[in-house]
Amino acid sequence: MSRDAWNEQLRRGALEFAILLTLAPARRYGLEIIRHLEAFTDLVITEGTIYPLLARLTRDGLLQAEWSASEAAHPRKYYRVTARGRRRLAEMAEHWRDFSAKIDRLLEAAGGTR
Amino acid sequence: MTLSDTGEARVRGYLYVLERSLRSSLPPAVVTDAVREVESHIRERVAETEPLPDERAAVERLLAALGTPTRVARGYSLELSVEEALTTGRVTLRHAHAGAWRRDRRRVVGRAAVPRARPDGARPHAQGGPCLAPLDSH
User: Fold this and answer.
1) A52 touches B: beta carbon within 8 Å
2) Average pLDDT for residues B95-111, to the nearest whole number?
3) Does the CB of B46 have a partner CB in chain A at under 8 Å?
4) Which of A81, A111, B5, B27 shows its CA 20 to 30 Å from the CA of A19?
5) Contact of A11 with A73, CB cutoff 8 Å
6) B22 to chain A: nearest residue by CA?
7) A31 CB within 8 Å of a chain B CB
């Protein structure tokens, strides 16, 4: 696997987790989610890839979506994390910490990579 | 930035292609909702863009950041395909291709691609080559 392909898989795998984290404190609409992700990460390469993922997370019951026409000149679709989504987020956070700690230990055991 | 008729036509054209592309794989209600959401994204981006002498370049930059309409439509199709495959357990070529980048795909394709035992009774991939494990083993 090329370096780019590996990076891409890692990025895509983390995106679902990052979206749930972004929405955990408050509801946000699509562009707000993208801006937040761009402020903290480089996970969003193509903005349009966020919307299909949001749609699936909504179908999976992890997010709840609702249109609002009162807050801008055009309607916005807001997303919030459901109770099920919060449970999934807690599991993902725990798994992520455990996973990254193990990889860190491996890196340390390998004497770093430089 | 407020779009001229030309800029507006470009945005309309983008949304038209997106809608046509989505129609082939998604239910009408989902298509309507998806197009509405992408249009909302574009309107928001246009509104926050400072007026520029070259409106065309600004609009093209904005749409390029979003991705081509066919690419956005493919994203919806891929998410739906992987979901269907995992829900039903059925795998089609389209499904397998759909999840090429997702962790879930390993399970889906794994089931579809488990090699049959060879006539001589040897286990496939016994030489240590790459082998996709059966779904149940993941």
Assistant:
1) yes
2) 42
3) no
4) B27
5) no
6) A52
7) yes
Select from A48, A56, A75 the Cβ nearest to the Cβ of B67. Answer: A48
φ and ψ at residue B96, rounded to 5 degrees: -60, -45
CA B77 vs. chain centroid, Å, equals 5
The tally of CA atoms less than 13 A away on the side-chain side of residue A98 is: 6
Burial-class residue B5 by CB neighbours within 10 Å (0-12, 13-18, 19+): exposed
B94: which 2 tokens? 């389209």
Tell whether A45 lies on the interface with B, counting CB pairs under 8 A: no
pLDDT in tens, A64-91: 999 998 877 889 999 999 999 999 999 9
Q: Say yes or no: ipTM exceeds 0.90.
A: no
Alpha-carbon span A80 to A58, nearest angstrom: 9
Helix (H, G, I), strand (E, B) or coil at B78: helix
- Rounded Cα distance between B94 and B96, Å, is 6
What is the pTM assigned to this prediction? 0.76
Please report the DSSP string for chain A in residue order. Answer: --HHHHHHHHHHHHHHHHHHHHHSSS-EEHHHHHHHHHHH-S--SSGGGHHHHHHHHHHTTSEEEEEESSSSSS-EEEEEE-HHHHHHHHHHHHHHHHHHHHHHHHHHHTT---
The residue type at B123: R
How far out from the chain centre does Cα A43 lie?
Answer: 8
